Sequence to fold (149 residues):
Amino acid sequence: MLNQLKLFFDKHMALASPDQFTDENLHLACAALFIEMMMMDDKIQIEEQDMILERVKNMFSLSLQEATELIASAARQRELATDYFEFTSLINKGFTQEQKIKLIKSLWQIAYADGQLNEYEEYMVRKIADLLHVPHLDFIKAKVQVNGG
Fold:
């Protein structure tokens, strides 16, 4: 019985291994990081939820229903994750440098969506930028573009 449950979760819930990525898994990884950003200050704000939905729809050219389903799947995946590496390693293999910078900009947009930047939110963006090998200059430029500083 336990083996059957494990097989089910391995098959249906886990991200692909870093060597076998798909667009769907890349989108899932990004959405999971977006949700993590929203949860970083321990407050779920409607503005942050709306920003995540907008970013997912626009970044991946999804319908409202597809974006909503992706976010729900990403929330489940985020709960199973032990750290950011499973998401960032996939993104590192599947995204160009430009796409990684856009992802960092999206994280800033979510962090600022409620009108305030929490120190934990800033730490998370910095940590993800480091894990994605985004240069500090691009990290700062993205922040300035989103909020002017």
